[in-house]
Design brief:
- Residues 39-125 form the Methyltransferase domain.
- Helix 1 (3-12) packs parallel to helix 4 (66-74).
- The chain is globular and about 45 Å long.
- It is built from seven helices and seven strands.
- The chain has helices at residues 3-12, 24-31, 47-54, 66-74, 110-118, 136-139, 153-158; strands spanning 37-41, 58-63, 82-85, 97-103, 121-132, 164-174, 189-198.
- The relative contact order is 0.16.
- The chain has a seven-stranded mixed beta sheet, with helices on both faces.
- It has a single domain (3-198), classed as Rossmann fold.
Length: 200
Amino acid sequence: MDATQWDERYRASAGGVWAAEPPAVVREIVSACRPGTAIDVATGDGRTAVWLAARGWSCTGIDFSAAGLALAAARPGGDAVTWIHADVHEWEPSASVDLVVSCYLHLPDSAAAVARIGEWVAPGGTLVVIGHDIENIAAGGHGPSDPAILYTPDLLHGALDDRFRIERCGRITRTAADAELRGGHGSAAIDTLLHAVRVR
């Protein structure tokens, strides 16, 4: 989907598309980090960025959907986040940050995109990426059905160079209790998670 299609989806939604909080595993990883500066990549309607700001992070949320960002800014706590309307392929932060989070950014060049956002992480900082795994199609989970844009552990692991220490990279299964959509969904979903720390 391009920016226009995402704008249409967000405008058709009643208050937002995604769940109120980021995935449980993202909350778990980030809660162990000391708050600092953060970028939420493909923030959508802002759930992760607002959650980070509420926990003391100085957060920027970037997305190419103006309609999604309008919903994000209108969330309770949305005024604590800096919202940027831009494409991840083109935008650059003015300085590296302590945390970069990307939840469900699926692109034909996903590995290159992950490598690019990894450049935004300061030495000692953390990168967290989660997205639908290719095995999610056969499992019948919610999400894209095009294997060309889905994740695998090898794809995410291979996106980073030796400046990063991989803390965790593998498949996880989310239950319906940790739904991606605002209205929930009834089946489990298979995701790929990457958690890495930049060492230099």
